Every structure is written in C-alpha cells, then in structure tokens.
Amino acid sequence: MNEHLDGSQELLVVDNGSRDSFAEAAAGWKGRHRLLALGDNLGFGRASNEGVREAAEPTTVLLNPDTELLDPGLDRLAAVATMLGGLVGPRVLNPDRTIQPSASGPEVGLWPWVRALIPGSLQPDALRVRTEPYRLERRVPVAWLTGACIAAPTATLRRLGPFDPALHMYGEDVDLGLRAAVDGVRSWFDPTICRLIHHGQGSSTVVYGSREAWRPAGTLNWRAAVRRAYGSRREWLAWRALRLNLRLRLIGKTLLGRATDRDRTALAGAIAADPPPTLPPP
Q1: Right CATH number for 11-272 from 3.40.1350, 2.40.50, 3.30.300, 3.90.550?
Q2: Which residues are registered as beta bridge partners of 67?
Q3: What is the rounded CA–CA span in Å between residue 276 and residue 221?
Q4: 153-179: pLDDT as tens digits
Q5: Residue boundaries of the structural domains of the chain
Q6: pLDDT tens digit string along 94-114?
Q7: CA separation for the pair 51, 35 (Å, rounded)
Q8: pTM of the full predicted structure?
Q9: In Å, how far from its chain's centre is CA 47?
C-alpha cells in the first residue's frame, strides 16, 4: 500500500483475535489508520461487517490481508464503485501472476453446465461472460465477486450486511453477490483499473491443516447460499454441474500428464459436501 497509494486513504484493520503484532504492522501505513480488535475469532464475515460499520469514508474497499497491490488502482476501483453504485472487483492474480478465478457467471440454469462441458480457455468471449468472466479484459456484470477485494459505497455495504454472519468462513462472497442482486445491487468485474495478487488459503492452512482442506466446508457453504437463493432443486442441479466440471478437469489433466492432486482434492471435497446446511433468512 505504501508503494502504490498516496496515503490519503484511511486504513481500518479489524483483528480477529490474532496472536501477532497486527497493531505494529498497521502503524507502518503512511496514512491514517484505525484498529478494531475483536478479541476473538468471529469469522471472516462478522469481522468484515464490524469494519464496514466503523468505516468513515463514503466508499469502502474490503481487502484481505493476504493480498499484494501491484498498481495504484485501488482508488480507481473505489471511484468506479461509487459511479456504478454497486460491488466492483479487480483483476486478481495468483503469486505466479496467472489469473485467479475471482468472478462468476450465473450459478444456476444452463450456464453451469456450459462451464462444466467447455473449458473456459476454449470458449469465445460471448460464452465466457456467463461462465468464467474473470478471463475477460473488459468490465462486465457478474453474479458474484471474490471476497479478497470488493469495493462498494459504504452505505450499500451496510445495507447488505455486507456478509451473513451465519457463514463463518468461505462462501460469504457468493452469498453476498446473490443477495445483492435480489436487492437491486449489481456486481461488476473490472480488470482494467486495478490488479493485485491474492496469496490465498492462509486461513485454510491454519484451520484445516493444508491449503486445499477447506473444500468440503467451502462447498457446503456455497451450496447453502445457492439453495437459499434459488431453492433446493436448482441448487442440486448446480452442485451436479460443479461435480461434472471438476471430474472432466481431472480427466483432462490426467490425459495430458499434468499434476492432478489439487483437482482430486477439489472433486473429493465437492462430492463430500452433502447434505448442505440450511441458512436462516439473511
């Protein structure tokens, strides 16, 4: 942040009962900063909500602590969110600079099956916009955005929650996008104004013991969010499409002689995610 931002932004750090020197790290920011120590691990969603309640600026960017800015685009991201009056997410990259999935098309209906049957790298842009929009190079509306970085008007985030505290970790971002759409708030993916690296799965390693062990719990939360938004039958079909997607990906990588450990874990996690929990009304 010190390298790419001018210091006019206020940094609000919400601590979820960590044991490291978060206050000292936050004090390294050259601009204004405030600390909110929760004293216990309330979960990603509840902690984020507390931060949004304390935010003093008209626009808020929810930013994971395991992200790394690559340019000064965070201000532009906030400005676009203000202009559009919705949720806006940037281009998110893996540590090796490959594109990280950070936005999704519809979770029910025809499009999950298209996503399952046709690899995104082979799809024309007309399909990608409804299946894997994170591959595109222009601003497009999406169903939901990764929670690693979301910009929106502060008042809009407060009205939405933004996150449902019933989801302790994983799936909160999917649920936010689906609920926002019902509330008339659109989600936008815009790769043209901001890029950042998301290292990812740090919490999964702490909680579950490895980077990929989050998948059963994460898929259960995804199923719960989709089920609450669309009903049990459409969610069940979406879950089957997800399993087909992962199975075909595993088969393809096996035939190509590529590493398949992560794909096997993902498929096993998706199969094990049954039955999904029932979420209360948001």
Answers
A1: 3.90.550
A2: 198
A3: 7
A4: 999 999 999 999 999 889 999 999 999
A5: 11-272
A6: 999 999 999 999 999 999 999
A7: 9
A8: 0.95
A9: 15
